[in-house]
Amino acid sequence: MLNPAMLMKIKKLKDKFVENHPKFPLFLNAVYNQGLVEDAIIEINVTRPDGQKLASNIKLKQSDIEMLKEMQNMMK
Fold first, then answer.
1. pLDDT value at residue 50
2. Band (46; pLDDT cuts 50, 70, 90)
3. Is residue 15 very low, low, confident or very high in pLDDT (cuts 50, 70, 90)?
């Protein structure tokens, strides 16, 4: 269980992230509102300043969806 001080720290970090990247939470909300479903694929691509590219993806399982929902509930 997270203690109240840790929750406040996480909230402050989240708020700063949203301030720095205001469109990203909107994107996440759009994805969530359409519904995460089993076998959907989440892809992540990172391009470093030196041009190196890293990419990965996951195919969602029901347990992944449940974990993401719990994480979202924790952030409210």
1. 98
2. very high
3. very high
Contact 40, 28 (CB under 8 A): no
DSSP 8-state assignment for residue 51? S
Strand 41-47 to strand 53-59: parallel, antiparallel, or no bridges (unpaired)?
Answer: antiparallel
Amino acid at 41: I
Instruction: Give residue 48's identity as a one-letter amino acid code.
Output: R
Would the pTM count as exceeding 0.85? no
Single-letter amino acid, residue 27 = F
Task: Note the helical H segments in the chain.
Answer: 4-20, 23-34, 62-75
Kindly give, in sequence order, each residue whose CB lies less than 8 Å from that of residue 56, ignoring residues fewer than 6 positions away.
Answer: 43, 44
Assigned token pair, 58 = 């996951």
Residues 6+ apart with CB under 8 A from 75: 10, 11, 14
